[in-house]
Amino acid sequence: MNFRQNNRICQLLNIEYPIIMGGMSWAGTPKLAAAVSNAGGLGVIGSGAMKREHLKEAIDTIRTLTDKPFGVNIILVSPYVDELVDLVIEEKVPVVTFGAGNPSKYMTRLKEAGIRVIPVVASDNMAKMMERIGADAVIAEGMESGGHIGEVTTLVLVNAVCRAVKIPVIAAGGIADGRAMAAMFALGAEGIQMGTRFIASTEADTHENFKKLILKSSIRDTVVTGAPLGHPARVIETRFARKVRELETKNLQEAEEVLVGSLRKAVVDGNIEEGSFMAGQCVGLINEIKPVKEIIQDIVNEFYETTQTFCEFVK
Amino acid sequence: MNFRQNNRICQLLNIEYPIIMGGMSWAGTPKLAAAVSNAGGLGVIGSGAMKREHLKEAIDTIRTLTDKPFGVNIILVSPYVDELVDLVIEEKVPVVTFGAGNPSKYMTRLKEAGIRVIPVVASDNMAKMMERIGADAVIAEGMESGGHIGEVTTLVLVNAVCRAVKIPVIAAGGIADGRAMAAMFALGAEGIQMGTRFIASTEADTHENFKKLILKSSIRDTVVTGAPLGHPARVIETRFARKVRELETKNLQEAEEVLVGSLRKAVVDGNIEEGSFMAGQCVGLINEIKPVKEIIQDIVNEFYETTQTFCEFVK
């Protein structure tokens, strides 16, 4: 199979493999994103809580590292959304993915600037709305995903979203290998998004402690913190995560306070005692730190092998 | 494709399609189970809180309704497990599925009696243990499932379990159609288990109110109750479910008390005010009450179509 010939995501984004990097604050650096783009996927800079000048710097950096298409992820809860949107338009960033929320007020300007707009959705109804306002594709992200999550699992959500819209669907949440990619394609998805798998790569500047935690975690070793605070996020179950969950049953304000800055502490400092190590349930399927190029090639190869075996079997 | 020829679940259980009925207390009646078996799947009587004489009656009844293989689901937390295991051995029930828990103390006797033993597992480690003690297959049930659930989603769990064991894997949780079945087979599963889809059938004696709730619910309309009590269960989000979740943050004992008997009130009485309507997230993918035979045929047909389209696409 040649993805370029019959895959709408590859055609839409002008990339070789329909593998997109998740929007990750702190972990989604220009270096990691460039590695993904250079390996044939779509690298995505996680703008997180960045101000305009920081994102400008990140965009300048990635352009020194790759001449392939790349994306910027913008979180709609950021106080700087307006200026970040202005910037990606000025900079003619090829693709923008939006973290859960409704990007409709920015849609017309982004589309007029020729930017591909791909919102993350957590329900089939949201997907339909995004299609209606002109999204080029949607990312259907299930609750097994790392970081901020919805309620519906990838299997159910991707199935429902693929039935609801005609634009291409990118499956996200719990995907770290070629088998999961094949399963998502069987449901009708045309691309996958991965976050945790790319953190466990050579090129990620994510702290070694974080990478080690991913390697040693099983599929049962993540928990959700922040749910009672209205911003549920999946993290690796460390002593800190257990403490946060306990605080959430006793003192919400204190829970909120210890969570502030905790993602940075995990990604940048590797601070086991105070960091939120956001990661998906697929940590249990990741056993090796590898170069990004190898990760993508392995997934594409396993996707081919899996589909061949499967298609042979069901003939 | 002929399942009989190359599918280990069909060969193991001597059935036509690798589609198993979930172990459902109250809803898993002999009538519904017989309909599933007569349609080529494996019908399963949910023994729930039954005593020996009630299960004996149910087994006698199903034998008047079908001459096809059928199963009995035994919940390992039942106070009557010992006597139910004695009974299924005496009755030479073809297949026993076990609700989450460890059935190892019964394994030797069941296997010696020629019974196929298929435990439900919520982790890859549990699956390996079950394989080691002689289980014929395992059911990997994700947390999008209805009723009592674990923490890991179907996509991640089935992937991990298929990599962990050599015995056949049956995927469960969030599956109600042929696309999801194809996705699970792409992951390496060789069968599917469905509960909610079979409740929404003509033959289910489940109260009309329950069936109507399934039809009108979206993928986001289930919640988990009982988690703080140590027995999390997925139910449709009714006013009662919201009340239980609120009680759980305030008065655990009262929450426990209102939950007693609440499944029976939902299934048998259709009591919207006091019933726990256990159902999976796939309620959002179910739009029609149909005869069981049609449900199974539609799923098999969609499985074929989906795999053909998919296999054509990835050629």
TrEMBL record, chains A, B:
Any one GO molecular function term: nitronate monooxygenase activity
CDD domains for the chain: NPD_like
Record key words, sorted: Flavoprotein, FMN, Oxidoreductase
InterPro entries: Aldolase_TIM, Enoyl_ACP_red-II_put, NMO
Superkingdom as given in the UniProt entry: Bacteria
Residue spans crossing the bilayer: none
PANTHER family according to UniProt: 2-NITROPROPANE DIOXYGENASE, 2-NITROPROPANE DIOXYGENASE-LIKE PROTEIN
NCBIfam families per the UniProt record, alphabetical: enACPred_II
Protein name in the entry: Enoyl-[acyl-carrier-protein] reductase FabK
Organism ancestry: Bacteria, Thermotogati, Thermotogota, Thermotogae, Thermotogales
